[in-house]
Amino acid sequence: MKIAVTGATGYIGNHLVPVLGKEHEVYAIVRDTSDTVGIEAHVKELVVYDRERIYDLLAEAKPEVLIHLAGVFYGEHNAENIANLLESNLVFSTVIFDAAAAAGCRKIINTGTYWQQFSGERYNPVNLYAATKQAAEDILLYYVKAKGCSAVTLQIFDSYGPNDHRNKILNIIKNLEDGAAIDMSPGRQKMYYCHIEDLVSGYLRALSLVNNMEHGTYARYALREEEPKELRVLIEEFLKISGKRLQINWGGRAYRDREIMDPAGIGTVLPGWKPRYGWQQGVKTLLDERYEDI
Amino acid sequence: MKIAVTGATGYIGNHLVPVLGKEHEVYAIVRDTSDTVGIEAHVKELVVYDRERIYDLLAEAKPEVLIHLAGVFYGEHNAENIANLLESNLVFSTVIFDAAAAAGCRKIINTGTYWQQFSGERYNPVNLYAATKQAAEDILLYYVKAKGCSAVTLQIFDSYGPNDHRNKILNIIKNLEDGAAIDMSPGRQKMYYCHIEDLVSGYLRALSLVNNMEHGTYARYALREEEPKELRVLIEEFLKISGKRLQINWGGRAYRDREIMDPAGIGTVLPGWKPRYGWQQGVKTLLDERYEDI
């Protein structure tokens, strides 16, 4: 199949595109500033995004499926970053859905976040980032209802794995020197961590699902295991596995504003998919240098 | 009260602002290109929108209520107008909610459309315009849930009245010469028409409601009468009242794509509000030149 992928050079994209590229023609939609080294060998074409030219570019590529991974994340927005947040998560998302649909694409896989469901409600966004994700879903529904697309939104929880250079807690801890001290929240918030390879298999499963859905139908599925675990338990296991000694000052900082303390049961787990990596096995891939820079 | 109003120079704004101005300090948020002649005498201040300066401007004005009327309408979007549609209805809306909330404003009245509910469903957008209205509501809910604002979205159906220079069917017919011919759809779609003075009283009613709502609560209300009427019946009555003779070729053109044929029962009518203008009386205000350019 011909598959257009946004966010192809992000953390998920860098792992998903090489796998997709084995069986499909991948059109990676990138910025002219993106570092495409990790995906170049695996794509049919790099399509450099430009709001006006993207319609012609996709009309030429004629993708059958769009996998929309791109998104900008700010835990807290402000008067300075709000323009970028809206441009990426709302304007870019809409234009990409629109250009893909105009090019005849009728299958879309979109990416959401469990932060759209603070306290488990159908919709209650943790932050403005999560609100833009919900808003993009409602835009996507126009292409489902009015243009006959079938679409799936995959709701992502926390992710981790090798080659992860994002500024996230596991990487911060991994990169600290032995003996270093770090302030953390009390750590009693429960988390779902999903290994990058399980995320990749989730997108592949969604690809097969969306191919078999009727036109004009929509579903939202969660990529998570059954039970969340306390962050504190996860981090302590991480330290044990890695043999790293840190002075973690639990409670040295406050919980995040509107922290989700227990995400248990948020969303419907993607049918026909199960994460293969337990925490112990997953953490090992993160620590094993053979996995780095593959 | 101090009330910030967007879209203050649009059709609703031009009628609402003079009424608000009698009792409140109105801060009209306008573009540097807006024609402000009709509202200047009724506002405390014209605030010229600029994405970066708006935070400071509203921090200075300290509005207690935001009435968000501004919006761009395209019945059909395309690769050319989509940027403007998204900039106005999503980016501008979000930045205004954000800047108002940052300035301490905790009461918001927002404007939606019955086109968010094709075939009466909770959400099924007629067109991308309607999808942007739904998406803006998603964003607004962030300010309700996370920032403790109370907010009301007023769902607007068709509107009409004197001084209406929009390119809408009643104006087109009104401006045709006697004896002229015009192609119309078969005209069997039912419509809710709301007179501009009734819309104004609806916003005033919403203002009093939102002032009494608890922090962090939200409601969406419809500004419509009980029963919709067929467009054909409405137009024929219009011709009778006006004494105009036209050759209307009913069925000479197709219905709009995804035309709402029967909006009966969409939304919950705003409590404590009732339209005062019947069709006959309303049409007379439209035809009476004394009402023009007031």
Brief overview:
Two copies of one chain form a homodimer. Chain A is 36% helix and 19% strand. Chain A has 294 residues and is an alpha/beta fold.
List keywords for this structure.
7-stranded parallel β-sheet; homodimer; Rossmann fold; alpha/beta; 8 helices; globular; 294 residues; two-stranded parallel sheet
Topology (SSEs and partners):
The structure is a homodimer of 294-residue chains.
Chain A: E1 2-6, H1 11-23, E2 25-30, E3 45-48, H2 54-61, E4 65-68, H3 82-102, E5 107-113, H4 128-145, E6 150-156, E7 158-160, H5 169-175, E8 181-184, E9 190-191, E10 193-195, H6 196-212, E11 218-223, E12 229-230, H7 231-242, E13 247-250, H8 279-287
Parallel strand pairs in A: 1-2, 1-4, 2-3, 4-5, 5-6, 6-11, 7-10, 8-13
Antiparallel strand pairs in A: 9-12
Tell how many strands the DSSP assignment of chain A holds. 13
Largest interface (CB within 8 Å) is between: A-B, 36 and 36 residues
Shape of chain A: globular
- Share in helix of chain A: 25-40%
Radius of gyration of chain A: 19 Å
CATH domain class name of chain A: Alpha Beta
- The run of helices and strands of chain A is EHEEHEHEHEEHEEEHEEHEH
Q: For the largest beta sheet of chain A, what order do the strands appear in spatially?
A: 3-2-1-4-5-6-11
Please, what is the CATH homologous superfamily of chain A?
Answer: NAD(P)-binding Rossmann-like Domain
Query: Average pLDDT across residues of chain A?
Result: 96
Biggest sheet record of chain A? 7 strands, parallel
Distance between the termini of chain A: 25 Å
Please name the CATH topology of chain A: Rossmann fold
Q: What is the total domain count of chain A?
A: 1
Structural class of chain A, by secondary structure, is alpha/beta
Low-confidence stretches of chain A at least 5 residues in length (pLDDT < 50)? none
**CATH architectural name of chain A:** 3-Layer(aba) Sandwich
Helical run tally of chain A:
8
Oligomer: homodimer
As a percent range, the share of strand residues of chain A is 15-25%
